[in-house]
Amino acid sequence: MKAIVYTETGAPSVLTAVDRDIVEPGVGEVRVRLVVAGVNPTDWKSRTGAGPGQKPAFDEVVPGQDGAGVVDAVGPEVEGIATGDRVWLLLAQHERPTGTAQEFTVVPAERVVRLPENADFDLGASLGVPAVTAHRALTVSEDGPSRLHPGALDGKTVLVAGGAGAVGHAAIQLARWAGATVITTVSGPEKAGLATAARAHHIVNYKSGDAVARIRELAPHGVDIIVEVAPAQNAELDAAVAAPRASVAIYANNGGDAVSIDIRPSMVGNIRYQFVLLYTVGTAALEAAKHDVTEAVRAGALPVGESHGLPLHRFSLGATADAHAAVESGVTGKVLIDISAP
Known about the structure:
This protein is α/β, with parallel strands linked by helices. Helix content is about 30%, strand content about 25%. It has ten helices and 15 strands. The protein has helices at about 40-50, 120-125, 130-135, 165-175, 190-195, 210-220, 230-240, 265-270, 285-300, 320-330; strands spanning about 1-5, 15-20, 30-40, 65-75, 85-90, 105-110, 110-115, 155-160, 180-185, 200-205, 225-230, 240-250, 270-275, 310-315, 335-340. The strands form three sheets. Strands 3, 4, 5, 6, 7, 14 and 15 form a seven-stranded mixed sheet that branches. A six-stranded parallel sheet has the order 10-9-8-11-12-13, sandwiched between helices. A two-stranded antiparallel sheet has the order 1-2. Helix 4 links the parallel strand 8 (about 155-160) and strand 9. The model has no long low-confidence stretch (mean pLDDT about 95).
């Protein structure tokens, strides 16, 4: 089979195409013939490491946490997954040397989720990191639900910072499906159009006018859940628009590695700051997200593509380095790698 590997950290150029044997699944494992893989910021950040020329965790790494395809082999002691099942993957490369930038991948069965019949492989490959991260961000509130379903967020107002990104897009869609009123902030008209297509109720351009005043106008009693991508820049805004006992779920650090929080307004409001990293959320949170995200997909609540607010950018498996470079450059939308025919 064809695979993309790297043996040292560095720029996208460290990614190399190789031929590798197809591996048989072991106990509790499943082999998937990949159709489409997704690329996320975590992929290029792992590839770059702390600097170029370092040895990664394994002698050879196939990148890629997300993908979708068809199960073609099942190892012993696997239940609920069968050969021929259409599936989506999450955390395929976490603590493992091989991910989804290859024609076949072997993963633990708990990282394989059946894909509803109404969903295509593009959508399946777009779930994983973005959708599960968004699910976690929406379920950490003190007064909110631990699970998402229609009605779970009735009466709640959710603010999604950077609604045109992949996690922001999923957060808008999941929050809408669960019944929340969704406000999102964007940097300009193009991204406002994408957030509108994702079905956010209200869009606020934070580069024009008074964003705090506008959000307060839309949510006079404050925002209950904030899905935050840029905590350093938005700390003052978040504290100013948060409702009592609001949660600020921080899943990225766009624009700075440190954040300064004004203690008094945060204390007065009993604001909860919850950091979110998919790799350490725990089994219970992952299992909840797998189920709820799949149900949202089944309900048609998580569509992708430009008409739904998330443009798709396609690359071949041999152009995985270009796919990584696109994500690293901050391309708006979702980067996918076409691996094989459905």
